[in-house]
Amino acid sequence: MWGNDKDRDEVPARSPKATNTVDTLIGRQTVITGDVAFTGGLHVDGRVKGKVMAESDKNAVLSVSESGAIEGDVRVPHIVLNGSIEGDVHADQRITLSAKAKVTGNVYYRLIEMTSGAMVNGQMVHEGATEDKVAPLPDRGSEDASDTEEHSRAAGTLFDAAREKKTSL
């Protein structure tokens, strides 16, 4: 109705093979100290003090509720976060940061969805299937260098004049 099916297929909301089930639940009153390795779906309402990793499962999904927290690095292909993570996050496929999500650490992702209110205190690093290649700028030569200096002086003069008159550029 709002768009054709072709547009929706270009960027799927979730990988068609990602699991929709929760195989493991960590309840609100539960605190796990140590690393957690899982396959399938893991939902965290409680607290994990250690790394959380999907064991060679490209379809694994980690969901962390608003009351859930992880203190350690996370390495899972599909992540839906509405709680907090203190550590680096590696989402090989997709990460969704909901309104209450808070990450203190770097986020490495292929596809990201971030809702207003989500916070990331760290770097966000895109890791695509292929590395982006940037072509170097062509050498402009010495003739263009004098033109650039002249333009810089003219811009500086305009800026100084505007500041003296207290007008905006």
UniProtKB/TrEMBL annotation:
It comes from Spectribacter hydrogenoxidans. Residues 130-169 are annotated as: Disordered. It comes from the Bacteria. Residues 130-153 have a biased composition (Basic and acidic residues). This is Polymer-forming cytoskeletal protein. Belongs to the bactofilin family.
